[in-house]
Amino acid sequence: MKMLTRLAAAAAACLSPAAAFADASTTVSAQPLWGIVEPQLVQLFALVTMGVITWATVTVGALIKKKTGVDITTGLLAQEASHRDALQTALTNAAGAVLQKVGTQIDVTTLDVKSPAVVAAANAVVEAVPDAMERFGLTA
Question: DSSP secondary structure string, the chain?
């Protein structure tokens, strides 16, 4: 109780000078502070939301498996693999179409893509599948 009294006295001492000088010339805009805090709050909200959704999905999946014996995650993984394969096929087909159109027009061994991310991705592909690169004659 003694500590609470001291805390209240300290708060009153801090707030009373502020109340005495609180006029229009001492107010500051909180907008710059909100501009700094808002993105972190949005990220935090997104993280919490994804956590809740994940928890709910796992809980419902476990409940369905317990009640019916059906494991829904197996179907979801198969569906994800199907979508991933379709995306990979579409990207491969698009890359092939570009190479077919441009391949006859250029006669260079290097291509300036003006993007470090594209260079890193291309190098990762070359390093990941060297046998396939050699098989199709794509080695330097």
Answer: -HHHHHHHHHHHHHHHHHHHT-SGGG---SHHHHHHHHHHHHHHHHHHHHHHHHHHHHHHHHHHHHHH---HHHHHHHHHHHHHHHHHHHHHHHHHHHHHHHHTT---S----S-HHHHHHHHHHHHH-HHHHHHTT---
